[in-house]
């Protein structure tokens, strides 16, 4: 057929080719890609990765025009009005996942179907995200919270949305797969997207650590994942790590994503204010705490996860870990001084630490300095 080379028609083919040649790099510029793909970053990302880079459509008997049509529908169901949870984020997570799955430590571990499932899950993992948190949806008795009984409300909805479109004949790109493959693919995609629910972060991390330790002991430091459950756990870890990978990217990229998530938080805060609800953390535009919350996000969420992934994939994630450390220092040094009590300013070098436990101590030190924490003692 006469399908466009990149899945979508572009004006500047050379610029697109140049970008595609960088698709295996960690600091790939998604914002530029969104412009060059003429605002179809997810359709073109999915097509370039699955068709041109990995040949997975051919492997699973997927009709390319049907797949492209399906991805256009998925992309259209990401909200353009969301500053963060839009199709560019979906494309970002997919591209990040593609990079990690290209590293030779994991290349031999996963089957083609598992890789396909992880990349597809990344692409659809936030489709039809309303720009509001699970907590907000539950608190406001949103129809999605009622439908899913407050459990992984958004993640269930992203999955149901993506699979609903496969029910339409003209969008069903999976009809050429055999039944066994299709069932397993569906099961894996469900397991992967449900694991992007932040409320499962700690238990997922604990389970991955256990798997990494036991597989290391069993196989002399070489990563061997024998059971489906072990491979799935690591794959869930990879997709989830890519979902929260912005802090491991070059600072300008990280800052751009941070601005977007914060603006989305503020828009939720505006609604909460209008509804007379308590404002959720980080959602009050009249009381910003961006720097401090990013340091907390890194120390308690991103770094522990990426340290574990770094062990698992050693030495392939070392550049991400050192970038994470650099980005943390950037935000740490910009935490605004508390207005009334500024006794214990820490010198910058003290933050240049490597282990996350040290950083947690460090963060506690900043918390003690915070006036809002002390004011209750004063009174
Ligand atoms: P989702 O993309 O599935 O929503 O998961 C990422 C979550 O991590 C965000 O919704 C947000 O709660 C949190 N987060 C924070 Br806090 N800072 C972030 C950042 N700079 N980039 C990405 N996610 C961030
Ligand atoms: Zn999500
Ligand atoms: Zn996401």
**Small-molecule components bound:** 8-bromo-adenosine-5'-monophosphate, zinc ion
In whole angstroms, how far apart are the ends?
75 Å
- Percentage of residues assigned to helices: 55-70%
Helix count from the secondary structure assignment: 19
Strand content: under 5%
Which spans have pLDDT < 50 for at least 5 consecutive residues? 345-354, 359-379
What structural category do the secondary elements indicate?
mainly alpha
Computed CA radius of gyration, to the nearest angstrom: 21 Å
Shape: globular
Order of helices and strands: HHHHHHHHHHHHHHHHHHH
The pLDDT mean sits at 91
Biggest β-sheet strands, sense, barrel: none
Strands, count: 0
Compose a concise summary of this entry:
With 379 residues, the chain is mainly alpha-helical. It is 63% helix and 0% strand.
Describe the 3D structure.
The protein starts with 12 loop residues before the first helix and ends with a helix. The protein has helices at 13-20, 30-36, 41-53, 56-59, 64-77, 87-101, 104-107, 112-124, 134-139, 143-147, 153-166, 179-194, 201-218, 228-243, 251-274, 290-312, 318-333, 356-369, 371-378. The protein has 379 residues and is mainly alpha-helical. It has 19 helices and no strands. Helix content is 63%, strand content 0%. The structure holds 8-bromo-adenosine-5'-monophosphate and zinc ion (2 copies). 8-bromo-adenosine-5'-monophosphate (8BR) binds at residues 126, 196, 198, 243-244, 246-247, 257-258, 261, 293-294, 297.
């Amino acid at each position: 057929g006469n399908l466009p080379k990149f899945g979508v028609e572009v004006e500047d083919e050379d610029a697109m080719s140049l970008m595609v040649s960088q698709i295996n790099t960690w600091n790939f510029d998604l914002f530029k890609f969104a412009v060059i793909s003429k605002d179809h970053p997810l359709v073109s990302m999915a097509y370039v990765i699955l068709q041109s880079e990995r040949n997975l459509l051919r492997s699973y008997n997927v009709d390319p025009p049907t797949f492209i049509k399906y991805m256009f529908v998925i992309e259209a169901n990401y909200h353009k009005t969301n500053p963060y949870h839009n199709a560019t984020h979906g494309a970002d997570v997919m591209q990040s996942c593609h990079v990690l799955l290209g590293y030779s430590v994991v290349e031999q571990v996963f089957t083609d179907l598992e890789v396909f499932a992880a990349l597809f899950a990344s692409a659809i993992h936030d489709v039809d995200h309303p720009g509001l948190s699970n907590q907000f949806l539950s608190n406001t008795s949103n129809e999605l919270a009622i439908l899913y009984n407050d459990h992984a409300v958004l993640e269930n909805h992203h999955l149901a949305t993506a699979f609903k479109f496969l029910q339409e004949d003209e969008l069903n790109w999976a009809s050429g797969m055999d039944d066994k493959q299709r069932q397993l693919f569906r099961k894996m995609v469900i397991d992967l997207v449900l694991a992007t629910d932040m409320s499962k972060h700690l238990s997922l991390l604990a389970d991955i650590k256990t798997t990494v330790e036991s597989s290391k002991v069993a196989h002399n430091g070489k990563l061997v994942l024998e059971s489906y459950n072990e491979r799935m756990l690591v794959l869930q870890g990879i997709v989830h790590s890519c979902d929260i990978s912005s802090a491991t990217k070059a600072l300008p990229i990280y800052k751009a994503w941070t601005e977007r998530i914060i603006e989305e938080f503020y828009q939720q805060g505006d609604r909460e204010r209008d509804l007379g609800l308590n404002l959720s953390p980080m959602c009050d535009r009249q009381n910003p705490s961006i720097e401090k919350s990013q340091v907390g996000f890194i120390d308690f969420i991103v770094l522990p996860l990426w340290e574990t992934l770094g062990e698992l994939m050693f030495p392939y994630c070392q550049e991400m870990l050192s970038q994470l450390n650099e980005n943390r220092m950037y935000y740490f040094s910009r935490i605004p001084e508390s207005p009334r009590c500024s006794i214990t300013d820490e010198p910058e070098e003290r933050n240049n630490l490597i282990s996350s436990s040290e950083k947690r101590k460090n963060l506690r030190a900043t918390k003690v300095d915070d006036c809002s924490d002390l004011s209750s003692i004063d009174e």
